[in-house]
Amino acid sequence: QVHKECESIIDELCLKSTKPTEDLTSRVENTE
């Protein structure tokens, strides 16, 4: 499921790494 390298909040992004980068970027900004 999640890569070991993924940590905390980043693991969520890794989970959605399959989605478009735009979606990831939006989530990152939202998290911050």
Automatic annotation (TrEMBL):
It comes from the Eukaryota. It comes from Rotaria sordida. This is Uncharacterized protein.
